[in-house]
Amino acid sequence: MVKRIAIGSDHGGFKLKAFLKKYLSQKGYIVTDFGTYKGESCDYPPIGYKVAKKVSNGEFKRGILICKTGIGMAIIANKLRNVRSGVCNTVTQARTSRLHNDTNVLSLAAKYTNPAKARRIVNVWLTTEALGGRHKKRVNQIKKLEKK
């Protein structure tokens, strides 16, 4: 079971990140915050990169990134080898992203995800294991393409 989580947000996701940090800590997770540390306007790429890099190099098995739409953070995260990130706005998307794609970075949209919904999405995402089988074959194809 994953117990350490890297987390980061830009200003648009700052409040939701603060909520999730507290919630996850109460559930026994060790959460390391890679920024932003205040709600003032900032650029998301450096923060998304820091979290994705920690997952890419194996220091963390999972990461959570938050911006207004989740899209920018997912784009940045997916630039790094060994990172599979998807924007999940529903519990079903979170479950499927783990089952089929073995995502290791969750990108959340603060604009469309209130704290209660985010809590449900994160819970499912953290507790769902990848299916393997034909899905593992496809994830392995992704890994092979990353090496080119």
Helix-strand layout with pairing:
Blueprint: E1 4-9, H1 14-26, E2 30-33, H2 44-56, E3 62-67, H3 71-77, E4 85-87, H4 91-101, E5 105-109, H5 115-127, H6 134-146
Parallel strand pairs: 1-2, 1-3, 3-5, 4-5
Helix pairs in contact: 2-3, 4-5
Account of the protein in words:
The chain has 148 residues and is α/β, with parallel strands linked by helices. The protein has one domain (4-146): Ribose 5-phosphate Isomerase B, Chain: A, CATH 3.40.1400.10. Helix content is 47%, strand content 16%. The chain contains 6 helices and 5 strands. The chain has helices spanning 14-26, 44-56, 71-77, 91-101, 115-127, 134-146; strands at residues 4-9, 30-33, 62-67, 85-87, 105-109. A 5-stranded parallel β-sheet has the order 2-1-3-5-4, sandwiched between helices. The longest helix has 13 residues, at 14-26. The N and C termini lie far apart (31 Å). The model has no long low-confidence stretch (mean pLDDT 97).
